[in-house]
Amino acid sequence: MAKRRFNLSKGKLIALGVLVALVVLAVLAVEDWHQLWKISSAPDNVPIVAMLFLVPIFTWMGIKQSLANDRLIKELEQDPKLAKTHHRKVEPWRPGWARELHVWPYLVRIEFLVAVIVTVVLFVWSITLNAPLEEPANPNLTMNPSKAPWYFLGLQEMLVYFDPWIAGVVMPSLIMVGLMVFPYVDSNPLGNGYYTLRQRRFAIGMFSVGFLQWLLLIVIGTFIRGPGWIWFWPGQTWDHNAVVFDKNIDLHDLIATSWIGKTLQLGFLQSNWGKWIFGGLVVGGFYVVGALFFHWLMTVDFKRISLRPLHLFPRDPFERKLLERTSILQYVTFQFFAISVLLAMPVKLILRLALTIKYVWVTPWFNI
Amino acid sequence: MEPERPDQPEYKETKQLTGDETAGSSLVEKVRESGMALKERAVGEVKSYKDPQDTQLWKSIFRVSHDRSDPRNRSLAILSNVFLHLHPAKINRDAVRYPFTWGMGGITFYLFIVLTFTGVLLMFYYHPTKADAFKDILYLEHDVPFGKLLRNMHRWAAHLMVITTWLHMFRVVLTGSYKRPREFNWGVGVVLLVLTLLLSFTGYLLPDDQLGFWAVTVGTNMARATPMLGSEGPFGVQLGMTPFNDVRFGLLGGSIVDSNALLRSYIWHCIGIPLVASIFMAVHFWRIRKDGGISGPAPVVLESEMKAVKKK
Ligand code: HEM
User: Fold this and answer.
1) In this predicted structure, what is the pLDDT of residue A6?
2) Is pTM beyond 0.90 here?
3) At what angle do helices B259-267 and B183-205 cross, to 10 degrees?
4) Helix %, strand %, coil % for chain A, to 5?
5) Which of A100, A131, A183 sits opposite B90 (nearest CB)?
6) What is the rounded distance in angstroms from the CA atom of residue A148 to the CA atom of residue A222?
C-alpha cells in the first residue's frame, strides 16, 4: 500500500487557522476560570464530560466500520459479475476456520474481561471522586439554580421553549413513542445487521439529529444555565442578582405592532379571534412547510444539488425506490414525529433565543 | 463415560498387621509403620485433588468439567449452567467481534448487577424517613467501613448505566439491528431506557439533601401540568383537578415533597422499578435468542438485490 502523505491544501490550512483562532478567542473570552472549573468539575457533571469523549470515540468506531462496508458495497455494486462470487464481509471467513465458535470460552472470556475492566474503572472513579451531598433538604431555602440530574436537563431546558405540559409531558411522550415506532416506519430493508451509511443515510441521519439535539440541550442546561436559569456563557461569572427583563413577545403582537403590521392595518390580529386563527394558521403552515422540508430531505441527491444552473431538487433514484416501499401510514407517522419533535425543537429554540418570540399560538386553553 | 481422567491413585498395599507378625516388633515400630501408611495415603489423596475438576464437590456443582476441549463438554458448560444458559452453546464466529456490538448491552446489564449488589448493601444502612435519611448518608460516609466507596460506586455506576444505555441504542441504530425481526425487541429496549432513567431519578431524592429535594421538586412540578390529569395542565381544572388529587399528588403521596414522597421514591427505587426492569430484561434477552441471536455482522446486501415489496 502506498504511504499516505499528509499534504496541506489551502483549504485545510484555512480551516486549521480558523479553528485555532476560534480556540484562542474562546480561551480569551473566558473571564472566570474558577466558575468554569466549578461547573465542569462538579462531581455530578463529570459523566457529561466523560460523554463528550465517549460519544465521539464510539461514533468514530461505527463510522470506520461503515466506511469499510460502504467501500465493499460500492465495489460490488459496480461489478455485478464480481458480486456473484465475491465475499460479503470486510473480514471474510477463511477456509479452515470454524464457522461457529463455542461460547465457552470464546464469548464468556470476553464478557469476563469486560466485566473486570468495568469494575476497575468503577473502583478508580469511586475512589477518586466523591458523590455529592449538599445540605439537608430545606423547602424554605430554594437552590438557585435548582437543576435536575444531568440526564434530565434536556427536559428542564425545554421548559424555556415550551409550556410545562409540552416540555414535561407531551414532548417526552412523543420522544418515547417516536422511538418505539422508529423500526416500523423505516421501510428500508438494507443495512440489517451491518454498519453502513451509504444505504441508510436518511434513517441514521434522523436518529443522529435527534440524539445530538438531546445532548445539546443537556450541555446548554449544564454548562450555560446559571441562577434564575439565565444564560451565562461558559466562563462568565454567575451573577446571582442578575435579572433578565422578559422582552419576549408573542408572534401576533410582534407582527401587528411592526411596521408592516401598521401599514397593512393588521391590528385585528390582537383580538381574541384574530390571534386564535392566526396562531392556528401559523402552526398549520409550519407542519406543511415541515412536511415539504422532510420530503425534500428524504429524496434529494445532495451530490447533484447545484446553484448554477439552479437545481435544488435532484432526486436520488435509490431514495425514490425506498419511498415507493413506504406505506402511506408509515410516511404520515414519520412526518408527524419528525415535524413535532425533530423540527419543532430547534425552530422553537431559535424563535425564542434569537428572535425573542414567546408564543406563536395563544388560546385560552394552551399556548404554543 | 469419563475419558482421560487420571486413574485413582493406587495405594501401596499396606502391611496387614496380624498378631504373630507384630509380636516381635516393639510398640514404637508399630505406630511408626501405621503412621507411614497414613502419610502415604494422604499424599496420594492430595495428588488427586490437584485437578479440582475431578473432585466430587466440583462435579456436583458444575456437573461437567470445563477445561476439556471436546465440543460436548463445552456446550454443556453453557447449557447446564443457570447463569450462562441465556447464551447459545455456539455462535457465529463474527458475532464475538467487540467492535460490532461495543459490548454495550452487556456492560449495561453488568452495571445493573453492580447496582443491585451495592444497592442491597446500602439498604442495610438506610432508613427512608425524614428523621434518618440524611443522617444515614452521613453515617455511611464517615463511619461505615468502605461506606463512602459503596455510595460512590452506586452513584457512578448509575450515571454510567445511563450513558451505556444510550450508546447501546446508538449502536443498534448504526447496525440497523432494529429491523425485522427485531422491531419488537427495540420497543422492549425503549421501555428499558425509560426505566433506567426513572431508576436514576427516584434514587436522586433518597439522600434527602438540597440537591435531590430541588431536583425532584422541579421534576414533579412538571407533572402538575399534565393535560387533563394535572391541576395546572390544559383541561385539568375543568376536570376537577386540584393540587390535592392530581397526578403529582399521586406521585408524591402529598402536595409537597415530604416524608411520603421519600417513602414512595424509596419503594419505587428499591422494589418497584427494579422488579419491572428485571422482567423487561428477561424478555429482552429471551427475544435476542428467539430473533436468531445478534443481528450481525451480517453479509452486506446490495441495492440491486432488494426484493420487490410483496403485493397483498
Ligand atoms: C437496561 C437496558 C438494556 C440492557 C441491559 C440491554 C441488554 C442488551 C444486550 C446484552 C444485548 C446483546 C447485544 C449487545 O450487547 O449489544 C442487547 C441487544 C439489543 N438491544 Fe438492548 N439492552 C438495553 C437497552 C436497550 C435499548 C434502550 C434499546 C433500543 C431502544 C435496545 C435494543 C436492543 C436490540 C434491538 C438488540 C438486538 C441487537 C442485535 O441483534 O444486534 N436495548 N441488549
Assistant:
1) 59
2) no
3) 140
4) 65, 5, 30
5) A100
6) 10
Alpha-carbon distances of A167 from A157, A170, A212, B196, B256, rounded to whole Å: 9, 6, 18, 20, 21
CB A172 within 8 A of CB B222: no
pLDDT of residue B1: 42
Is the CB–ligand 1 distance for residue B199 below 6 Å? no
| Residue with grid cell 453515617, as numbered in its chain | B139
Suggest the residue from B65, B104, B156, B256 to mutate for an interface test with chain A (most A CBs closer than 10 A): B156
The tens place of each residue's pLDDT in chain B, 312 residues long, gives: 444 444 555 554 555 555 555 555 789 999 999 999 999 999 988 888 887 777 888 888 877 665 566 777 778 777 777 778 788 888 888 888 888 999 999 999 999 999 999 999 999 999 999 999 999 999 999 999 999 999 999 999 999 999 999 999 999 999 999 998 999 999 999 999 999 999 999 999 999 998 888 888 888 888 888 888 888 877 777 888 888 888 888 888 888 888 899 999 999 999 999 999 999 999 999 999 999 888 878 888 888 888 777 655
CA nearest neighbour of B114 among B150, B65, B163: B150
Tell me, using a 6 A CB cutoff, whether residue B190 lines ligand 1.
yes
String of b and e for B96-126 (b: at least 16 CB within 10 Å)?
beeebbbbbbbbbbbbbebbeebbebbeebb
A237 C-alpha to ligand 1 centroid (Å) = 42
- The amino acid that residue B300 corresponds to is V
Chain A residues inside the 8 Å CB shell of B217: 146
Measured in angstroms, how far is the CA atom of residue A358 from the centroid of ligand 1? 40
Cell of A165: 405540559
> Is A206 in contact with A197 (CB distance < 8 Å)?
no
Instruction: Give the domain ranges of chain B.
Output: 8-50, 100-291
Which of A163, A179, A194 is the closest to B298 by Cβ?
A194
SS3 A306: strand
Asked if B229 and B283 count as a contact pair (C-beta separation under 8 A), the reply is: no
Q: How far is CA A308 from the centre of its chain?
A: 32
CB atoms within 10 A of CB A149: 22
The residues facing A136 across adjacent strands are: B209
Q: Please give the Cα distance from B104 to A290 (Å, whole number).
A: 35
Digit-coded pLDDT (tens) for B275-311: 999 999 999 999 999 998 888 788 888 888 887 776 5
Rounded to whole angstroms, the Cα distance separating A98 from A101 reads 7
Query: CA B168 to CA B193: how far, in whole Å?
Result: 10
Distance between CA atoms of residues A342 and A171, nearest Å: 11
Query: Which of A179, A214, A318, A328 is the best mutation test for B, with the most CBs of B within 10 A?
Result: A179
Q: In sequence order, which residues have a C-beta less than 8 Å from that of residue B179 and are 6 or more positions away?
A: A183, A186, A188, A189, A191, A192, A193, B295
Buried b (16+ CB within 10 A) or exposed e, B185-205: bbbbbbbbbbbbbbbbbbbbb
Q: C-alpha grid cell for residue A233?
A: 456563557
Q: Enumerate the residues of chain A whose CB falls inside 8 A of the CB of residue B159.
A: 44, 47, 151
pLDDT of amino acid A126: 92
Torsion-angle region of B242 (φ positive above 0: left; ψ -120 to 50: alpha; else: beta): beta
Q: Could you confirm whether domain B100-291 is CATH 1.20.810.10?
A: yes
Mutational test site, ligand 1, from B168, B170, B287, max ligand atoms within 8 Å of CB: B168
Closest partner residue to B152 (CB to CB) among A65, A129, A196 is A129
CA distance A238 to A232: 7
The low-confidence residues of chain A, meaning pLDDT below 50, are 1-2
Q: Is B107 in the pocket of ligand 1 (CB under 6 A)?
A: no
